[in-house]
Amino acid sequence: MEALGTGIPQTKLLGFCHKQIKQRLFHKRQVSKCDIVSAFHSSDKEHHHSLSYNASSLYIPSKERKYLGKSSYSSEACSFDENMAGASSTTAREKIGVLLLNLGGPETLQDVQPFLFNLFADPDIIRLPRWFRFLQRPLAQLISVVRAPKSKEGYASIGGGSPLRRITNEQADALKHALEKKKLHTNVYVAMRYWYPFTEEAIQQIKRDKITKLVILPLYPQYSISTSGSSIRVLQNIFREDAYFEGLPISIIESWYQREGYIKSMADLIEKELLSFSNPEEVMIFFSAHGVPVSYVEDAGDPYRDQMEHCIRLIMNELKSRGVTNQHTLAYQSRVGPVQWLKPYTDEVLVELGKKGVKSLLAVPISFVSEHIETLEEIDMEYKELALESGIKNWGRVPALGCTSSFITDLADAVLEALPSASATSRARRETDDSDNDFMQYAIKLFFGSILAFLFLFSPKLISSLRNNLL
Ligand SMILES: C=CC1=C(C)c2cc3[nH]c(cc4nc(cc5[nH]c(cc1n2)c(C)c5CCC(=O)O)C(CCC(=O)O)=C4C)c(C)c3C=C
Ligand SMILES: [Fe+2]
């Protein structure tokens, strides 16, 4: 099993694993055991999992570098009235910021290749062993160029670009208003991981606005190393270099799929969509989650699969309590590259269900709260066609939550609940990575690495295998 065509056994990939993050946080003293447990372990309690910390307490091994195709851009943020004070837990002088984390998407077809470069250059997306990390960017360049034509086709079919920026801005606006209704006046910022507005810009804006307390809210209900984890790592890299952020009380809501408001909002959407079928009780509810490579869960301790399964249990229990007792199933979509991804795969399950005689199916995208290429193209076009070809007669799809008011109100409650636990502690002793400072080791790596990179990148076998797997 190889890691995304690198030729490196997947089982040997190191990356920065979730278990290591937990251990390192423990050893850095500043986060209590209790905080970590609440942040990483799922429970049936109906509150979010949040992690309060001071930025300087976190250890991050690798430097963040990314392609920046444009020289300037503005960060998206809702306006902030400095004189307005918030809810009971804040003081009149406090300036509360909410930072929404999201993936970002190409806005034009020209953006697609550099966007893909940013994505594949992320060490949380292609997880290379330490000694091979210098290959990250050349590999990202190669994979992004090879994959771009296929991705462009997808984006062209949904109007020439991703709707993510627009929808996320609308959600930011709606959240700000929902918080205002609850008497908390905030500035809501958007930080995208792979496209505009980039995380770094949102962070600069927070600093310029002199925010005094920050709640970080990833727009992914379930935690994965590859999504929320990656964005949080970037933030940690920025924060530990900056005295302002080291002193800023911060609370991170790591995952929130188990919140009552979210579960009920999802159940509402499903219930409503079932009614569009002529025989609603016969419809198979088909949850389709974005996949991750199996090694993330089995080797790196990514809680994503557990959280996904738990999330679906909670939604089905909620539906049951409303008298909806349809059959349901979960499958994983959008795999990339030759490695094993979480199973079962959406396309394979659709064919099986067709063979088994399922006639009506309601697809429910479950890992993301906005419409995006994988709902609009992959589910609505590719999977629908496959399902109909496989014998399924009646197809439906639940829309993404977007700005559904019960959902946004619940996110506002999550922010309010997270605020009291935002905390800052004194500057921690920084742990530097010895090997990063060791010039000899670096030179040796570079020498052998260059030879390997040459063999790797210019091998016709590798290039044709990449083409087969990425197109
Ligand atoms: C919870 C959601 C997501 C997980 C987990 C995730 C992991 C993951 N993704 C890739 C590769 C690609 N993802 C792409 C687009 C994309 N991914 C998500 C969400 C998750 N990804 C979203 C919302 C989007 C769409 C953004 C948009 O523009 O609308 C793409 C680009 C599109 C394409 O070419 O298919 C790639 C590539 C990996 C490798 C991965 C886990 C390791
Ligand atoms: Fe993805």
CATH class of the largest domain: Alpha Beta
Note the main sheet.
5 strands, mixed
- Total count of strands: 9
Bound molecules: the ligand C=CC1=C(C)c2cc3[nH]c(cc4nc(cc5[nH]c(cc1n2)c(C)c5CCC(=O)O)C(CCC(=O)O)=C4C)c(C)c3C=C, fe (ii) ion
Low-confidence stretches: 1-49, 52-75, 77-86, 425-437
Function: Catalyzes the ferrous insertion into protoporphyrin IX.
Family: Belongs to the ferrochelatase family.
Keywords: Chloroplast, Heme biosynthesis, Iron, Lyase, Plastid, Porphyrin biosynthesis
Protein name: Ferrochelatase
Describe, in plain words, how this protein is organized in 3D.
- There is one protein chain.
- The chain has helices spanning 18-27, 33-40, 112-120, 136-157, 164-181, 199-208, 225-239, 243-246, 260-274, 294-298, 304-321, 346-356, 373-389, 405-418, 434-437, 439-457, 460-470, and strands at residues 49-53, 96-102, 186-192, 213-218, 250-255, 284-290, 328-333, 360-365, 394-397.
- The two termini are 19 Å apart.
- The longest helix is centred in the first third of the chain and has 22 residues, at 136-157.
- Helix 5 (164-181) packs across helix 14 (405-418) and helix 12 packs parallel to helix 13.
- The chain contains 17 helices and nine strands.
- It is globular and about 60 Å long.
- The strands form two sheets. The protein has a five-stranded mixed beta sheet, sandwiched between helices. The chain has a four-stranded parallel beta sheet with strand order 7-6-8-9, sandwiched between helices.
- The chain is an alpha/beta fold and 471 residues long.
- It has two domains: 10-256 and 404-434, Rossmann fold; 260-397, Rossmann fold (3-Layer(aba) Sandwich), CATH 3.40.50.
- The chain binds ligand L6N33NVT and fe (ii) ion.
- Fe (ii) ion binds at residues 290, 334.
- The site of the ligand C=CC1=C(C)c2cc3[nH]c(cc4nc(cc5[nH]c(cc1n2)c(C)c5CCC(=O)O)C(CCC(=O)O)=C4C)c(C)c3C=C has 22 residues, from helix 3, helix 4, helix 7 and helix 13.
